[in-house]
Automatic annotation (TrEMBL), chain A:
Transmembrane segments: 180-201, 221-241, 253-275, 320-341, 353-369, 381-402
Membrane topology: Multi-pass membrane protein
Protein name from the UniProt record: A-type voltage-gated potassium channel KCND1
The UniProt record lists the keyword NAD: no
Annotated region (Disordered), positions in chain: 510-547
Residues spanning the signal sequence: 1-16
Location relative to the cell: Membrane
Organism for this UniProt entry: Gasterosteus aculeatus aculeatus
Cellular compartments per GO CC: dendritic spine; neuronal cell body; postsynaptic membrane; voltage-gated potassium channel complex
Pfam families assigned to the protein according to its UniProt record, in alphabetical order: BTB_2 (PF02214), DUF3399 (PF11879), Ion_trans (PF00520), Shal-type (PF11601)
Keywords for this protein: Ion channel, Ion transport, Membrane, Potassium, Potassium channel, Potassium transport, Signal, Transmembrane, Transmembrane helix, Transport, Voltage-gated channel
TrEMBL record, chain B:
Organism: Gasterosteus aculeatus aculeatus (three-spined stickleback)
Listed Pfam families: EF-hand_7, EF-hand_8
Subcellular location: Cell membrane
InterPro entries in the record: EF-hand-dom_pair, EF_Hand_1_Ca_BS, EF_hand_dom, Recoverin
GO CC terms of this entry: nucleus; voltage-gated potassium channel complex
GO molecular function: calcium ion binding; DNA-binding transcription repressor activity, RNA polymerase II-specific; potassium channel activity; potassium channel regulator activity; RNA polymerase II cis-regulatory region sequence-specific DNA binding
Name assigned to this protein: EF-hand domain-containing protein
Length: 633, 231
């Protein structure tokens, strides 16, 4: 129950007097307030800072440290106060939770210290109010990730007894592990750089040939460049083969991006060897050597900035996608408009809409090459609108990307937003489960036989112990209230499961065999397989399962119904079914635990009721049809 | 000068943008500004109520000073403004009956407590009602119960009124009960009630019939004393 609502329990109980004249059964005895003391203040001394509050305030949450008798361990006899050697700042939030019923997470507080305090005082963190919950979860996630990162860094410590293969793989992945790895690393890096520079220099015009034509260096010093290329490719090939050998999962390695780039980098050379005379094709493959440059990205593993940039782009995929999409939309719109605007003018460069795309892109990105220019007035007007909107469209997603970058830089989330939603659902489910404790507590305590008017049906010894388990006064008062309501209406609260089971039971009864001559016995008892009655009732052959097949003859109910109600103990599912209900014509071996029954609702007209009581008004009453549930197996 | 279709369109666009810019400066359509003021207003003044002094309340009720203090603390905690409106009341009361729907009964209860029918319960109403329920004589309690059942406060309980009350009580039980609440359970209960209470069989129960019958019934008399020690 919520904190403040507990204060209204006396009111609810007092208002229960409104049920009394209507009820037909005597009410259960109220739980005696144990040594009814006046509301007193208690002092909580937390590391020297004294907090004072009412005792009732703390009693609102009996499953926490402060609300239960656990705090007695911290009682200091001399100073007559409860001393806790904990953080007083966080304790403020904890105490406010008792006072207001809402737990807040202060932003300046460290997440792990807060968690520890909550755990100490027995408060689950899911109770944190919605106002602070997002912040709390974010911080917690950050913390968890940081811990994971730290753990990963610690993995560099070399475990003993690694095979040659594993050593090699570690050396490849982490150059700092050994000197050899470092040497290898730098050598490959050097050759990457050499190969890139070679490619670049190859294309530079290198002096003139006798026939006054500029010749690129590649053609002038063909042999030299060829040797250089061969050397680089040999190194790369060896490196690739070694990585392939060392990889723990060769298939996965071959599928990875870097290895594909490696292959693509060395392939042109071999293809060039094969077909030396066909210059066009080999030229195209030479260009592919540019991919070798991407090997430089492997440096990014040890450069924080590059790594963050990569993560940013990856995480901003949605924003980048949005940017692209909006740009495309705008381009198409403006290209169409410009095309039709410029259609009238002669010698217009805007020959088609796709041709206008180029103009639109150049204008929107504010490049403005000037190779295509509108000449009509309308074209100029729309062209200016186009350039203005281009600035806007590009400027809008950029801050998002920037903020993403800074967010990742501060080591924020890598998980999907979807996982956050799942956690939200899980959290609500957890809160719902913990709140269900209220209604379940009443049923649970009923199960334990907390009735006081059926002493002869005391439960077995283990249940006796449960009886003696102290439920708080508040709870017992609340249960008493619910119990009074049950008595007033002469119905009982049950769990949803049992309710469905009772219908399952009832559905398997054979109705036609029921004789219409009802005995004067009241058909209060249902035939739920979880019901146990030690008293053998005379065969209530007409008291079919759902008691609403016939009207309750409540006039007789007073002495008998009371007894019947008190004999009903709802057993937990685990008990044996041997002592189950007394119905003889019961179909054997009901699987009461199965809950996947589809029920169909059919209406059966009320059979004529012949009670010996001659309750004429009863007969007249239920002229409308009753609803019966029949299980369709 | 011939104006092409596209040029017309272009000029229309330019004019529209001009209008937008003017609107931005607030030059265009100044009338629309006044309408906006009303939207921006937020609700002033949360109605707040301070109760009468402790001494007066002590005179009007049967509670001691300490009890009044403790009652007020609980009351104020849940309703800082000092007034309980019907919605809050329903919410609070429903929390005690998680399995059923307590809102209808809470509505009747609210009307029973809200004696001056102004739509909200002040602390005085609350405490006076509680005083009757917890510290009043049995007759006073019965009178209170009668007042609760008599929805239109005309001094008579008709079958319809009782039916509404009974239905609302059964609603609080919810769906999952054993035996299950049938559609006519409240009706039967009402019939029984009237059979017991309505002496002259005129279809209504007056306050005298009610009190007289209740005083003769031991169960009811016993249960009236049940909640003496709630506070």
């Amino acid at each position: 129950m919520a904190a403040g609502v507990a204060a209204w329990l006396p009111f609810a109980r007092a208002a229960a007097i409104g049920w009394m004249p209507v009820a037909n059964l005597p009410m259960p005895v109220a739980p005696a307030g144990k040594n009814k003391r006046q509301d007193e203040m208690i002092i909580l001394n937390v590391s020297g800072r004294r907090f004072e509050t009412w005792r009732n305030t703390l009693d609102r949450y009996p499953d926490t440290l402060l609300g239960s008798s656990e705090k007695e361990f911290f009682y200091n006899e001399e100073t007559k106060e409860y001393f806790f050697d904990r953080d007083p700042d966080v304790f403020r939030s904890v105490l406010n939770f008792y006072r207001t019923g809402k737990l807040h997470y202060p932003r300046y507080e460290c997440i792990s210290s807060y968690d520890e305090e909550l755990a100490f005082f027995g408060i689950i963190s899911e109770i944190i109010g919605d106002c602070c919950y997002e912040e709390y979860k974010d911080r917690k996630r950050e913390n968890a990730e940081r811990l994971m990162d730290d753990q990963e860094d610690n993995k560099d410590a070399k475990p003993p007894n690694m095979t040659c293969r594993e050593t090699m793989w570690r050396a490849f992945e982490n150059p700092h592990t050994s000197t050899m790895a470092l040497v290898f690393y730098y050598v490959t890096g050097f050759f990457i750089a050499v190969s890139v520079i070679t490619n670049v220099v190859e294309t530079v015009p290198c002096g003139t040939s006798p026939n006054q034509k500029e010749v690129p260096c590649g053609e002038r010093y063909t042999v030299a460049f060829f040797c250089m290329d061969t050397a680089c490719v040999m190194i790369f090939t060896v490196e690739y083969l070694m990585r392939l050998f060392a990889a723990p999962s060769r298939y996965r390695f071959m599928r990875s991006v870097m290895s594909i780039i490696d292959v693509v980098a060395i392939l042109p050379y071999y293809i060039g060897l094969v077909m030396t005379d066909n210059e066009d094709v080999s030229g195209a493959f030479v260009t592919l050597r540019v991919f070798r440059v991407f090997r430089i990205f492997k440096f990014s593993r040890h450069s924080q900035g590059l790594r963050i940039l990569g993560y940013t782009l990856k995480s901003c995929a949605s924003e980048l996608g949005f940017l692209l999409f909006s740009l495309t939309m705008a381009i198409i719109i403006f290209a169409t408009v410009m095309f039709y605007a410029e259609k009238g003018s002669s010698s217009s460069k805007f020959t088609s809409i796709p041709a206008s795309f180029w103009y639109t892109i150049v204008t929107m990105t504010t490049l403005g090459y000037g190779d295509m220019v509108p000449k009509t007035i309308a074209g100029k007007i729309f062209g200016s609108i186009c350039s203005l909107s281009g600035v806007l469209v590009i400027a809008l997603p950029v801050p998002v990307i920037v903020s993403n970058f800074s967010r990742i830089y501060h080591q924020n989330q890598r998980a999907d937003k979807r996982r956050a939603q799942k956690m939200q659902k899980a959290r609500l489910a957890r809160i719902r489960i913990s709140k269900q404790g209220t209604s379940n507590a009443f049923l649970h305590s009923k199960r334990n036989g907390l009735f006081s008017e059926a002493p002869e049906f005391t439960s077995s010894t283990e249940e006796d112990q449960r009886l003696n388990k102290s439920t708080s006064l508040l709870e017992s008062q609340h249960h008493h209230l619910l119990h009074c309501l049950e008595k007033t209406t002469n119905h009982e609260f049950v769990d949803q499961q049992y309710y469905q089971q009772s219908y399952l039971e009832a559905g398997l009864q054979n109705y036609p065999s029921r004789s219409p001559s009802l005995s004067s016995r009241d058909g209060v008892s249902g035939t739920c397989c979880t019901r146990r009655s030690k008293k053998q009732h005379a065969p209530l052959q007409n008291a079919s399962g759902p008691a609403h097949m016939q009207p309750l003859t409540q006039v007789h109910a007073h002495p008998r119904g009371l007894q019947e109600l008190s004999t009903i103990h709802i057993q937990p599912l685990s008990t044996s079914r041997s002592s189950l209900n007394m119905r003889v014509d019961e179909p054997a071996s009901l699987n009461c635990q199965s809950s996947q029954i589809t029920t169909a609702i059919i209406s059966i007209p009320t059979p004529p009721v012949t009670t010996s009581d001659g309750d004429a008004h009863l007969r007249a009453g239920p002229a409308h049809q009753n609803v019966v549930k029949v299980s369709a197996l | 000068m011939e104006v092409d279709g596209m040029e017309v369109f272009a000029i229309a666009v330019v004019v529209a943008m001009f209008v937008v810019v003017l609107k931005q400066f607030g030059v265009w359509e100044p009338l629309s500004l006044e309408g906006k003021i009303c939207d921006g207003e937020f609700e002033l003044s949360m109605v707040r109520h301070q109760p009468e002094g402790l001494d007066q309340l002590q005179a009007q009720t049967q509670f001691t000073r300490k009890e009044l203090q403790s009652l007020y603390r609980g009351f104020k905690n849940e309703c800082p403004s000092g007034l309980v409106d019907e919605e809050t009341f329903k919410t609070i009361y429903s929390q005690f009956f998680p399995q059923g729907d307590a809102t209808t009964y809470a509505h009747f209860l609210f009307n029973a407590f809200d004696m001056d029918r102004n739509g909200s319960i002040r602390f005085e109403d609350f405490v006076i009602g509680l005083s009757v329920l917890l510290r009043g004589s049995v007759t006073e309690k019965l009178r209170w119960a009668f007042n609760l059942y008599d929805i239109n406060k005309d001094g008579l309980i008709t079958k319809e009124e009782m039916m509404s009350i009974m239905t609302s009580i059964y609603d609080m039980m919810g769906r999952y009960t054993l035996p299950s609440v049938r559609d006519d359970s409240p009706y039967e209960h009402v019939e029984r009630f009237f059979q017991k209470m309505d002496r002259n069989r005129d279809g209504v129960v007056t306050i005298d019939e009610f009190i007289e019958t209740c005083q003769k019934d031991e169960n009811i008399m016993a249960s009236m004393q049940l909640f003496e020690n709630v506070i």
